[in-house]
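Worked example

This section walks through a single chain of length 101. The input is the sequence exactly as stored; nothing has been trimmed or padded.
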Amino acid sequence: MRFIILGVALIFVGVIVLGAFGHEYQAATIESNEFGTCYEYFDDKPPQKINCSFKIMDQTVFFGLVLAFIAAGIISLIKGIRGDWDSKIKPEDVVGPGKEE
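Given that input, the structure is written out below as tokens.
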């Protein structure tokens, strides 16, 4: 049961991170494909021209991180669903009601 909860939480975190911060990383592909030049935007100064490969690398690292969260969640879900490890305990490790002494 713990792996199922962990899997759902990891997938949820991956989707939330992608939804909250993903829009910032979409511009690199569009700028490089359509215009050939990329810009870094700031709040307090004008945009600066930068190399597009740096923005695309940042985008790849971000999506790799999100994909790692979601993949870890899926693996955890599969392990939790297939696993019967929590029901297989040694008789001497049983605690609580129903323990025979």
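What to look for: The beta strands are 38-40, 48-50.
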